[in-house]
Design goal:
This protein is mainly beta. The chain contains one helix and eleven strands; from the N terminus they run βββββββββαββ. Strands 2, 4, 5, 6, 9, 10 and 11 form a seven-stranded mixed beta sheet that branches. Strand 7 and strand 8 form a beta hairpin. The longest helix is centred in the C-terminal third of the chain and has 5 residues. The radius of gyration is 13 Å and the shape is globular. The N and C termini lie far apart (35 Å).
Length: 128
C-alpha cells in the first residue's frame, strides 16, 4: 500500500463543504509534520495547510484561513482537512504530504520540492 492515501474529494457547489482524509502506513507517521498542498490547472503547486507532528502547531495559506481546518488523529494515522465555504478557486488536485520540518517551512515549500512522502492526490471541484 502507498505510504499516504487521500480520499474525500469530489464535486461540491460553492459554499459547500468537504472533508479530505489522508491515511498513512508503513512508516512512523506520528514523528512527521503533515500537510495539504494543491495544484490547479496551469498553476503552481501551493501549500494549503500544515500541522506539526504533535498536532499543536498549524499553518494556513491566507486564501483558506477561516474556512479550512487541519487536524490529525494519532491512533488512526490520519490527517484531515475540513474545507468549508468552498469557492470555485479552491478547485484543484489536493495532495497529502509528510516530512520532517516545521509547519511554516513545510507550507512554504516551492513548486519543485519533493517531500519525504506524498500521496497520489484527490480531485476537488467547486462548481455550480
Amino acid at each position: 500500500q502507498a505510504p499516504l492515501v487521500e480520499s474525500g474529494g469530489g464535486l461540491v457547489q460553492p459554499g459547500g463543504s468537504l472533508r479530505l482524509s489522508c491515511v498513512a502506513s508503513g512508516f512512523s507517521f506520528h514523528y512527521y509534520a503533515a500537510g495539504w498542498f494543491r495544484q490547479a490547472p496551469g498553476k503552481e503547486r501551493e501549500g494549503v495547510s500544515c500541522i506539526s507532528s504533535n498536532g499543536v502547531n498549524t499553518n494556513y495559506a491566507d486564501s483558506v484561513k477561516g474556512r479550512f481546518t487541519i487536524s490529525r488523529d494519532r491512533d488512526k494515522n490520519t490527517v484531515y482537512l475540513q474545507m468549508d465555504s468552498l469557492r470555485p478557486e479552491d478547485t484543484a488536485v489536493y495532495y497529502c504530504v509528510a516530512d520532517l520540518m516545521t509547519v511554516e517551512a513545510m507550507c512554504a515549500q516551492p513548486q519543485g520540492w519533493t517531500p519525504n512522502y506524498m500521496g497520489q492526490g484527490t480531485q476537488v471541484t467547486v462548481s455550480a
